[in-house]
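Objective 1.3, modelling of assemblies. Example input:
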Amino acid sequence: MNLNWKRTALSLSPIWATLVALALGAGLILLAGLNPIKAYYALFMGAFSNIYGISSTLTKTTPLIFASLGVALAFKGGYFNVGAEGQLYLGGLGATLAGLYIHGLSPLLHIPVTLTAGFVAGGIWSLIPGYLKARHEVNEIITCIFMYFIGLLFIEYMASGPLFEPGAPAAMSREIAASAQLPIIIPNTDVHLGFLMSLALVFIMHLVLTKTTIGYQITAMGLNPVASRYAGVNIVKDMCVLSFVSGGLAGLAGASEIMGLKHRLFDAFSPGYGLDAIVIAFLAKSNPIGVMVASLFFGALRSGAGMMQRAAGVPTTAVLAIQGLVILFVAISLVLPQWRPRWFRADMDKETPRKKENE
Amino acid sequence: MARKIKMLSIYLVAFAFVVASVGVSPALGARQLKVAAVMPGTITDGSFNQSCYEGLKVIEKKLGAQIAFSERVSQADQVENIIDYARRGYDLVIAHGGEMDDAAMKVAKKFPKVKFFVTNGNAKGPNVANGSVNPTHYGYVCGVVGAKMTKTNKLACVAGNEFALVVAVYESFKKGVRDYNPDADVGMIYTGSWDDVAKAKEAALAQIAIGVDVLFPVLDLATLGIIEGAREEGVYVFGFSKDQLDAAPKNVLCSAIQNYSAILLHIAKLVKEGKFEGGKSYALGFETPGVTGLGRINKIVPQEVRDLVKKAEGDLISGRIEPYPWP
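Predicted structure (tokens):
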């Protein structure tokens, strides 16, 4: 039973990590001279208590799911796409362009066209590191990070330059056509059609990865690219397609954010969804269903954190520090299964059949 | 054992919630004015956001209002923050920054009884107004000072992006310079960042290298970079937003003060007295005490220039000079 207990404990390590982070965060809140219980109550209520809290959580979950699916798919195929934030921004730009400059279409046509524009823009941004990796073995982690900064600054340039709405009080574009805006699915909230689309994508990706040859090919490529090549897989082509689709999914995060929520291109319109996506993909071990659950958790954390500030008066710095602690500890918990202290591992190793015979 | 732990944790969580819900039961009191502000940056930035925070504190003290605020609100969280205050019955919700125009408008439609004020914005509606420190006022008088202090007849503005407000400041500054020194040139540089101190310093040094000896930053935190560049190269510079004479006592001529706290107090007073006008753009300048000014003027600025400043202020208040159409 002791062993089972340890196994269960280990599989739930991200949850323990979150609790440890929240406990440390409570210390921070105490330091700020506030009541941690009150603050955490606000965190929880802010994320789940009523329709507004839930809708705010779902609104934030939507881009997280899109972007994390992109990152998870890339991880599955051995492409470490850490540039999802940049692809998300480019996706937002693609959607904005399609939403601004295409007129006279019915929403039934305009929405898919705009989404596709976002997908393609994000995909191209990811294809560049993907191609360089596949063809020239350039480390994609470095190129992805470069592309992220280029993308971020490019959007800043577009929002304050060519797309800038004259006379606007901040760096932003004009509003996209009404026919390109995603409809709200829960009245009087910000939850838009993008949320349902992201859920649909979760299941599509789950099916593709588990039931199709393509899914198998991606997994094989991720596990052992050399073996895949010997087995007759065109690694260069597959890596390019994979990076394109991965970036496209991240691009959809930006596109849905513009089409459903902001309706304009702003500089810095994403608070780091694409960066959270990396942690989420790791946390979910690149499993689409896991991505959905982890995205919901991060969405709730983000929306509850705002409430913690508004209702309990916790300073933003403390709120951000707590968010950071959660991410840090979850990340640590993910390497724990590989690095277990000797005292923890000792009796688990005994479980192997050979040792049992010895006993 | 695992089961016991599970049960224990459920009890603990339940207990935590009981404690928590007792802890936050609201205190009932007399009806008081409730004012909330949503800010894009930190309340300790020594500039735009801090000014808003100080305004809230003054509102709390002078009007006996209940105040609340959110700082560092990202693009994605604007609506959520504004709507939350509206829902919780705040009388006035301040969206501090023009980038919140859309968010404020969106929320305002759903809460007709709540008043919304967008600082430096364009938003207008039955219950929405916007307002700013009149940029033509401080821009013009700084121009007057710059016109008389430059030796090379080259001056320059440095800003982040080409917003309407920035253009108004620049045009008014230029008018002030030209009215008192027709030979002078006034350049305009956009760095693309309001907070990047290093970038601003580079821009300042580049301007100084081509002979500019009076710099006018229209920036947030990055203003410090301009002042730093001016201090190193020994040229003149204006402080922006707050009195920044102490940042470089030999180089800062005076500061273009924008006291948003005075504006917010003014707006909150209007709300309290029921005189708040939706659909209006409030532009407050020298005519409203405490809103704008030059702060402490450096002792190197001669008395005759100070007299010209006084005269210019009078001209602006009387409306005899309108440097640039605003709003």
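Residues 352-359 of chain A have pLDDT under 50 and may be disordered.
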